[in-house]
Amino acid sequence: MAMTAPLLVAAALLVALPGLALLAARRAGLGLLLLDRARCCRWQAGPCAGARRGMGFDPIFGAMLDAGALRALRAACEAGRAAARPAALFVKLPGCWRLAVLAPPPPPSLPDGVPVGVWLLDPRGRTLTGNRPLARLLGGAIPEGVATAGLQLCGPAGGEAPLGLDPGKEREALLRQPGQKPRRLLASASPAGGGWLLSLLDVTPLRTAQERIEHLAGHDPLTGLPNRGVLRAALDALAEDPGGGTLIRLDLDQLRAVNDRHGQGAGDALLRVAAGRLRAAIRPSDLAARLGGNEFAVLAFGLRGEGAMLLADRLRESLLQPVRHGTWEATPAARLGVAWTPDHGDGAEALMHAAQHALREAKRKGLGAASFEPRLLERARHRALLRDALAEALAEGGLALHIQPQRHLRTGALGGAEALLRWDSARLGRMVPPTEILAAAGEAGLTRALDQWVLRGAIALQREWLGEAGLPQRLGVNISAATLQDPGFAEEVAAALDHAGLPPSALEIEIPEDLAVRDLPAVAETVAALREAGVVLALDDFGAGHSSLAHVVKLPVHRVKLDRSTIERLPDDPRAYAVLRSTLAMARGLELEVVAEGVETEAQAEALRRLGCHVAQGWLVARPMPPEALRDWCAAPVLRAVS
């Protein structure tokens, strides 16, 4: 057997040179066992199967052997020869004593089909064996010991196990190997046969994922900037800083235009560039964050007053450089609102509101940047009052519809009418213009409810006029883009018309020109359903913005309504003629009826007739009037057609 020669050498040395032999046996890991004539243990050294002084032969070896193997081992002992199980050599001594030289037990078989590296070490941390996952983890080969493996415990190391581990406790360690990024391991150690069993689990992917999740929890995934939550925590810290600081809120002006013209990918590229420029323009101690959409914020500690405004100017200038991406180019201008502590607010919420008020003021006045002023709070209070009053008017019947008729330019015949929203607020003590109504509805989340009210009111009027000669047989209403994106809106309109007993052609829905191109897919389905139901569709304010052409091509409308900004330049502006000539030519090609809004003079009507416009709406025809006044107007002599 393989261990016979070493055992014979050890036995010979024990007889001839006991001291030297004992040292050699211990270094070789051999077990020594002295048995008396009764085969009881009198002395032992090294690994000896758990033998203790006075223990008999069978108790020493019986736990590891079956009956047959135990008999074979006892026979080898009596004969003074070698045995296979366990690997041992028995030497006869005077007085019938026996010296047993025991080979060290083979290292245990370690599992390979697990993701954990298992490493068996001797008491000094030297390798006894290890499994294949351990070899792969450590670069392909298991080193001689833990000291040369490139392992370092994270944090203090005070335990008795290898690497300074505390037995039975998991700790994180770093594995550093030449030419590779450090890896994160989960290490634990437990005693094993006088040595140590070390387990190593590679948790690098897990830690990387955790760090990514933690980063995303506090950062915007598109730009990498801190998000609103991080900004709020920094504002809380600012509130406790005696040096104070400044909050700047800013909106990019060009994002929507870039999205409309070039798509969402181009808008994302613009946001990333803007974020990088903001980050480069601030001090290392400052914080740039993205709040969402086109909104950003910068927090600067220890900066107030004139210094804050200088920072705002620097941020705006940094954004004004052109951005080139692929085939397009854009210049990301911005509006900024500036507020600082303690003058404009002590807490995080107060400072956020102050900066937002300042930003609204910059937008209202067309400024690059504006700082907070106390009077802005009064304006905010006014807007809040307006929102509350609108909600009350909507609930209690405080709104009204006025009707503005339309005339055919050639015949003078009535060409339909438009229902316009009016609000004479008793609570506010004034007539509120439509622009304020729509803005307040948007801020209060009442746009959908307002659209429903207008729709119901228009259908009720048409139901009242049904079959009455001389009154408009079609009434138009303005519907917001948000409502048109509702998949159930077309069905709601059809149900309301059916309930009123009206033909679908009695209703005209005007689609706003400021509908974003990116929203067209969501709106197109609703618009197609409305047209299929027989509702007349018009594109409102045509020519007021860059999106008109895309809308008229992609949406199945029947009419386009020319924006008044073009009509008011007639008849003296050749550019206005050129624009209208091309628009009307396109409309003829698409078989669309054209309505001119804001017609106020005979000269404008004459110019439109010559260009081929079909219908006029404006003060020349009639001012908006209450529904009860419409009968008298319709009974009056018909407006003479322009000849």
Order of strands across the main sheet: 19-20-22-23-24-25-26-27
Mean pLDDT value: 85
Gyration radius (Cα, Å) is 45 Å
DSSP summary, beta strand count = 27
**Residue share in helices?**
40-55%
**Helix count, per DSSP?**
22
Low-confidence segments: 1-5, 639-643
Largest sheet: 8 strands, mixed, barrel
Distance between the termini: 126 Å
**What share of residues are in beta strands?**
15-25%
Q: How would you sum up the global shape?
A: elongated
Structural class: alpha+beta
Helix-strand blueprint:
Elements: H1 4-16, H2 18-27, E1 31-35, E2 41-45, H3 57-61, H4 67-79, E3 82-83, E4 88-93, E5 97-102, E6 116-121, E7 127-130, H5 132-137, E8 151-153, E9 171-175, E10 183-192, E11 195-202, H6 204-218, H7 228-239, E12 245-252, H8 255-262, H9 264-281, E13 287-292, E14 295-301, H10 305-319, E15 323-325, E16 328-330, E17 334-341, H11 348-365, E18 369-371, H12 375-396, E19 400-408, E20 414-425, E21 430-432, H13 434-444, H14 447-465, E22 475-478, H15 481-484, H16 489-500, E23 507-511, H17 520-533, E24 536-542, H18 548-554, E25 559-562, H19 564-567, H20 574-589, E26 593-597, H21 602-611, E27 615-617, H22 627-635
Parallel strand pairs: 17-18, 20-22, 22-23, 23-24, 24-25, 25-26, 26-27
Antiparallel strand pairs: 1-2, 1-5, 3-4, 4-5, 6-7, 6-11, 8-9, 9-10, 10-11, 12-14, 12-17, 13-14, 15-16, 19-20, 19-27, 20-21
